[in-house]
Amino acid sequence: MSSSTTAEDTGRAPIWSVSEHLEDILATVHPLDPIELQLLDAQGCVLVEDVTVPVSLPPFDNSSMDGYAVRTADVAGATEEFPAVLEVIGDVAAGALGGLTVGPGQAARIMTGAPLPPGAEAVVPVEWTDGGLGEGPVGTMTPHSLAPEGASGEVRVHRPAAVRAHVRARGSDVQSGERALAAGTVLGPPQISLLAAIGRGTVRVHPRPRVVVLSTGSELTQPGEELTEGRIYDSNSFALTAAARDAGAIAYRVGAVADDAETLRATIEDQLIRADLLVTTGGVSVGAYDVVKEALQGAGDWEEGSESGSGIEFRKLAMQPGKPQGFGSIGPDHTPLLALPGNPVSSYVSFELFVRPAIRALMGLQDVSRPSIRAALDSREPLTSPSGKRQFLRGRYDEEKGTVAPVGGSGSHLIAALAHADALIVVPEDTAEVAPGTELDVILLR
Q1: What b/e readout covers 209-239, taking b as 16+ CB neighbours within 10 angstroms?
Q2: What is the DSSP letter of 375?
Q3: What is the pTM of this model?
Q4: Of the chain's two ends, which shows fewer C-beta atoms within 10 Å, N or C?
């Protein structure tokens, strides 16, 4: 890990900037090793190699409509008053094997997706015909199970069709040998659909990281349990687990751990087996019961034979909220760990700034942070900000107006305000006051 470039040689702990802390995290966290996964298990993952099309899509000329496969010369000039009368020689259903050949004066009843039979040059939709009923135009084809005779007899066609009308050509989607998806593609439903369509059952990807979230504090009670005097409900572990899943991770929530260093150490050791990233919340400040700092001191020596370089460094950042932070690695596999402050807003802001990018980096993504835009401050009064600190205020962004309005105050305990915000307003370190209408950077949380 690097050291802060903004620290003064005063003998005190250095003050890290937000950018320095994030750069240090991203320099340490690397994409997880690729694995081969079944398609549905690969949803949300990032491809590690190009995927080439082995077979053209569609693999054969096929009908885009339910109707009749015809020769264009046989329906030229057809009208309702003077329809073309053709002999129906059978059905061509989707998935059917070949066998029919359309000759002069003939038509084959064909279904959407069925292969165009030899001899046919176009498809006329059933709505352009009498459906073989000998009357006027019909709106639908009679089901084969109800009227097998519909596959024979005669059909009257009321409109002409150009060559290749309503025919999907072989390879009109993608051609064999073309690149279907590039390395670095995130696999969503459309991409998985394409992979399945070209016959890929598995794909090589960076897996979704497994993130374990632990909250600490003897005052924490689990939601649904009785809240006794002096205690509060544990919201952080729920918020951060949900945020980790939203970022693309497989996230596990561990119930609140009491303020006991040995218990916390044992809990973390137990969780290492299923963690690609550990996140703790609480216990990183300067209090007598800040158990995370106590438990993680010398974390690099937890495992016998662990290599040098392991360990957690606790830092002060020039930001509000979220000044106290911890980062490093623990255990034999040097599993990265981010220790966040315990106040709910501090914890969530810290997650967005540092943990979310770490998760996205583990996934192999290039864009690891939330999108940021510029917006004018919509406020009746000027905003104040502590000098020397980058402040992150909750806000609501109005895309139509290009403005952002503060939500709630700056307190790091105001959960309700956070629940109504969809953006973070960023006030730079060198700004102590922001006038209404001033343009600021805004991190979108949508």
Answers
A1: bbbbbbbbbeebeeeeeeeeeeeeebbbbeb
A2: E
A3: 0.83
A4: C
